[in-house]
Amino acid sequence: MTLDLDAYFARIGWSGERRPTVEVLRSVHRAHMLGIPFENLEPVLGSAPSLALPDLEAKLVRGERGGYCYEHNTLLAAALTQLGFRVTLLTARVVLGAAPGDVRPRTHMLMKVEAEDGATPFLADVGFGANGALLEPIPLVEDAELLDTPRRHRLVHAPHDGPLEMWELQTDKGGYWEPQYEFTLEPFETPDYDVINWHIATNPRSPFRQAVYAQRTLPGRHLALSGRTLVETADDGTVTERELGGQAEVLRVLAEDFAVRLPEGTVLPG
């Protein structure tokens, strides 16, 4: 199956020349980030989300829902491939929030993208559920810096014992660079993500099984919901936090603020 590009572009509010150029890559990436929210409702409700393209189109494009990294980046990869970009799927180890000495599994999906008019490939990722996520793709070059307003990112090489170079994406946090995740350029395939997705969605110890996580990037602000804690971060760095009152308010906030509408009668755990 191929993705319905007309429906996808309508969903993210993008219109432009459908060519595999750097400018198209940048604008589609940003539009996707602003257009489709991040959420983990399937694992919280007890199932693993399908990564089949028809199901992703039904859910993220036509269904007033979002998804997590495998869903978002599988969808974007399909769109970019149909536009003529060369896409290589990758997997990263999230280091954001890790304690010193912690070694987390490589479970985050991202991609390398090559454009017809680009001298270097780009790192693209529309599925990282944090306010340090890329708004636009960054050139895959050591010490590359990107001002993806209002955010700023850079790529560096990290110490690593393996045969491939280890890359680290960092976000400017107002005076210091905060590591987000680390990855190599080893290609991954669809069956790899099927296994990882199943583990993340069904393992009782997975954080995505424990609580609702939702993220939405909007002009001027970023919204993050973790359990019942709602955090709004303005582009100037101002942070506002409040606790939601109960399940009814969580469902209302998901629908009204995150544009994630669940079927009537949905009961969230906890």
Poorly predicted segments? none
Tell me what portion of residues adopts beta-strand conformation: 25-35%
The first-to-last residue Cα distance is 38 Å
What kind of oligomer do you see?
Answer: single chain
Which secondary structure elements does this structure contain, and how are they paired or packed?
Elements: H1 5-12, H2 22-35, E1 38-39, H3 41-44, H4 53-61, H5 69-83, E2 86-94, E3 106-114, E4 122-124, E5 138-139, E6 145-148, E7 151-158, E8 166-172, E9 177-183, H6 190-202, H7 207-210, E10 213-218, E11 221-226, E12 229-234, E13 239-243, H8 247-256
Antiparallel strand pairs: 1-10, 2-3, 2-9, 3-4, 4-5, 6-7, 7-8, 8-9, 10-11, 11-12, 12-13
Helix pairs in contact: 4-5
Textual characterization of the structure:
With 270 residues, the chain is of the alpha+beta class. It is built from 8 helices and 13 strands. The strands form 2 sheets. Strands 5-4-3-2-9-8-7-6 form an 8-stranded antiparallel sheet. A hairpin with a 2-residue loop joins strand 6 (145-148) and strand 7. Helix 4 packs across helix 5. It is globular, with a radius of gyration of 18 Å.
Overview features:
270 residues, alpha+beta, eight-stranded antiparallel β-sheet, five-stranded antiparallel β-sheet, 8 helices, 13 strands, globular
What is the gist of this entry?
This protein has 270 residues and is α+β, with helices and mostly antiparallel strands.
